[in-house]
Amino acid sequence: MDKVLFLTVTLSLFVVITQVKCSSSRLKRVTKAQVLGFDWKNCGQPDAPAVLKTLTVSPDPISIPGDLTASAAGSTSVELAAPLAVNVTLEKEVAGFWVKVPCVEELGSCHYQDACGILSQLIPPGQDCPEPLHTYGLPCRCPFKAGSYSLPQSDFYLPYMDLPYWLTNGNYRVQGVLGSQGSELGCLKVSLSLHSD
Ligand SMILES: *[C@@H]1O[C@H](CO)[C@@H](O)[C@H](O)[C@H]1NC(C)=O
């Protein structure tokens, strides 16, 4: 898939995994959750080096645990290499207003200075990239060479997860800004609704 897409997906997974790993003291048991109305858009400058071109996720709603089908494509006109910074802003709709969720134990609206380092921690160098990336020869660690990346339609199983205690039912939007050495490389906004028992 597009490098950008790949990176986006990888970073999203990264953020989710890191948050789940790092906030074990604040997790709550969730039997079942549903994600509804997943939507996304680029939010960088029109000439941003890294852009997501397509991202299709189904079904709607997505059940957790459950099966997810996704395809994506993106591109980057510059190599994405360390140091890569990612600023995440997570907002929740409360009584009609968007309220920023603070960064708590590496989850929420957090600034990650070294996204490449995090990826290398999650998937140690030398280890194959997780499927379906491996099958399609897509990278999962820095550097991501300039070029186009695309992930054909693939099935994923979303396992049972413990969610942070503050991740309650409602509408959320997340913005991720990717930057390196003071310049913005790309920006992605995702919105979704969460419903759990
Ligand atoms: C992240 O936010 C910090 C503080 O506002 C800022 O200095 C930095 O440039 C931002 N980085 C990105 C990639 O947007």
TrEMBL record:
- UniProt feature coiled coil, ranges: none
Q: Signal: present as a keyword of the record? A: yes
Q: Which GO terms describe its biological process?
A: ganglioside catabolic process
Keywords, A to Z, come to: Signal
Show the Pfam families listed in the entry: E1_DerP2_DerF2 (PF02221)
Fetch the Gene3D superfamilies from UniProt. Ganglioside GM2 activator
Q: Does the keyword S-adenosyl-L-methionine apply?
A: no
Q: Which GO terms describe its cellular component?
A: cytoplasmic side of plasma membrane
Which positions make up the signal peptide?
Answer: 1-22
Q: Name one GO molecular function term.
A: lipid transporter activity
Where in the numbering of this chain does the MD-2-related lipid-recognition domain appear?
A: 40-192
Q: PANTHER family from the entry? A: GANGLIOSIDE GM2 ACTIVATOR (PTHR17357:SF0), GM2 GANGLIOSIDE ACTIVATOR PROTEIN (PTHR17357)
What's the protein name?
Ganglioside GM2 activator
Tell me the lineage of the source organism.
Answer: Eukaryota, Metazoa, Chordata, Craniata, Vertebrata
> What gene is it encoded by?
gm2a
